[in-house]
Write a sequence for this structure.
């Protein structure tokens, strides 16, 4: 069998019907481009979420009050008052796998400066909260331990607060803002972090000493949560285990009883979002892959047409000594050439489409080498699979019947 001659014959056959060959490849082109673009967008979203969540601290752990019972009545999470400052002290003392701990209380309200106001949230924390949540100061200072102990009316603010309350270029440091009619002095400005993976503005924030929010704004003695940071990401599980044991002891929860608190970790959230993102990427790829199936059916259809149109040619070649395997290989090579040519164009188009989406819509994309290689392999497989049956039909024609065909 002369493979070079077979390739020339297949190429000439496709050149005689350029437009039909292009239309046949179009299904493969669209299918491959769709798969690569969808996977690139899905992987880009996954990486973006992972980066944003990691920017919030991958070794962060937070404990929140769970539902509790009072007088036999099951209370909601918002009514729970199970966490105290003594819990924070116990965690700091006993949990060796935890490097930093901060209590947290928060309130939602109206922030006012001059004749401007903005709805926002104030969080009562200690000075370790910035390290736990990976916040940094762009200017000013953080509140001191003395200011925490004296319920000082001081705060740190994010860029969104500045944009909505202060004039452009105005320095907020040293100015007093009002939160629900309580004056608070701005002593620091937080660096911009932008939105997180859930669309929440991380710069729309006010941080004050937890005692200030606890006593002056909420008038409560309990806390609403505990934020902690594990010594390292590898120590997350141990830190959660130690935190659980400590809180169960301080809350006097007996063996077999349900915890009155809930513990979550940032790494757990990252894994959850990654799992969801992987599922969505797979779904998008599968939907786009349907186009490849349609393109393969188009190749099979056009090869059937080609066999029918060239029945006399096939009969003539068989009658002068051509073998069935040669005929079969000729049509199979045509099918594979259609599929691979469409696949190469589709790969280039998919990469181009991904970059266009990234630049126009500012959407993160990640072109995966594995997706490109997989698409090329699938294209070759489609050419063989969908071209084999028409090629086999051509090879099995009876020379006499083929020559008589009209």
């Amino acid at each position: 069998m002369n493979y070079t001659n077979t390739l020339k014959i297949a190429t000439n056959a496709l050149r005689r019907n350029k437009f039909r060959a292009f239309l046949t490849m179009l299904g493969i082109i669209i299918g491959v481009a769709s798969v690569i673009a969808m996977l690139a967008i899905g992987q880009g979203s996954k990486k973006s979420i992972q980066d944003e969540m990691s920017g919030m601290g991958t070794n962060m752990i937070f404990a929140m009050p769970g539902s509790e019972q009072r007088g036999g009545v099951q209370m909601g999470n918002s009514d729970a008052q199970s966490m105290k400052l003594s819990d924070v002290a116990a965690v700091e003392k006993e949990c060796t796998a935890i490097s930093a701990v901060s209590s947290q209380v928060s309130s939602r309200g109206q922030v006012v400066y001059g004749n401007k106001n903005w709805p926002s949230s104030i969080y009562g924390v200690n000075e370790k909260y910035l390290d736990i949540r990976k916040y940094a100061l762009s200017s000013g200072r953080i509140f001191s331990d003395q200011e925490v102990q004296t319920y000082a009316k001081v705060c740190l603010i994010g860029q969104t607060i500045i944009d909505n309350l202060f004039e452009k270029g105005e320095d907020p440091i040293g100015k007093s803002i009002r939160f629900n009619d309580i004056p608070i002095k701005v002593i620091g400005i937080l660096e911009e972090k932008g939105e997180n993976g859930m669309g929440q503005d991380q710069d729309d924030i006010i941080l004050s000493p937890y005692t200030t929010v606890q006593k002056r704004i909420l008038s409560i003695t309990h806390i609403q949560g505990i934020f902690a940071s594990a010594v390292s990401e590898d120590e997350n599980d141990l830190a959660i285990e130690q935190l659980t044991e400590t809180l169960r002891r301080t809350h006097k929860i007996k063996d077999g009883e349900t915890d009155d608190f809930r513990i979550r970790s940032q790494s757990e959230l990252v894994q959850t979002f990654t799992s969801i993102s992987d599922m969505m990427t797979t779904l998008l790829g599968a939907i786009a892959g349907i186009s490849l199936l349609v393109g393969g059916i188009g190749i099979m259809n056009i090869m059937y047409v080609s066999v029918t149109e060239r029945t006399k040619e096939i009969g003539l070649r068989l009658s002068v000594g051509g073998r069935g395997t040669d005929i079969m290989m000729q049509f199979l090579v045509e099918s594979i050439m259609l599929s691979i040519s469409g696949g190469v164009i589709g790969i280039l188009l998919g990469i181009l489409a991904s970059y266009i989406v990234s630049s126009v819509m500012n959407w993160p994309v990640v072109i995966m080498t594995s997706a490109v290689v997989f698409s090329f392999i699938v294209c070759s497989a489609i050419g063989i699979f969908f071209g084999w049956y028409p090629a086999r039909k051509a090879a099995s024609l009876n020379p006499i019947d083929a020559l008589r065909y009209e």
